[in-house]
Amino acid sequence: MRSTTRAEQADQRRAELLEATRKVVLERGLANTRIADIAKSINVSGGLIHYHFATKDELITAMLRATLDIESARLDELAAGPGTAVERLDRVLQYYIPESRSDQSWLLWIDAWNTALREPAVNGIMLELETAWLDALARVLADGTRTGEFACDDPAGAAERIDAMLDGLVIRYTLHPTVLSRSRLLDHARTAAAREAGIRPDAFA
């Protein structure tokens, strides 16, 4: 059996630190998370963390980057996956919408939006995340228009409008779940997407 190399061990340790950072950030928030909190959560020294990440900002940025990479890859799979354009569009919409108000991914990104106002590195990651979502929506809308399933003259513009509406609704759903249910949020998303795609809302059924 092949032994693990030092580089592989370092990569594994970095991955463990990133996962620990994500968990602590979700509990305490980006602004209130300290290196000491992360170290305590997995019973390691702060020095070990600084060996892999020079600063807290570098660690936070790496954690957000790793999360972005996972979500972007998943979006690519959904947008390019099997099925009709309607089915793929619906899968992208449902992936966008949190499973619950405690959805960890959305809680993380809402927190990161606030941090992005003051941290250029985080701002860049948030722009990449937004671009990934817009590209996925626009790609499916363009594909559906080429095949005749949709009638969408401006897939990029349609994607921006759908994305902006969903951002607002998801924040409302996260903060006030008794006011807006997930099923109603999904109905709004499908209605808006149907109008942009030039199809009937019941096509998603």
UniProtKB/TrEMBL annotation:
The keyword Thylakoid does not apply. Residues 11-71 form the HTH tetR-type domain. Coiled coil: none annotated. Residues 34-53 bind DNA. Keywords: DNA-binding, Repressor, Transcription, Transcription regulation. It holds the Pfam family TetR_N. This is TetR/AcrR family transcriptional regulator.
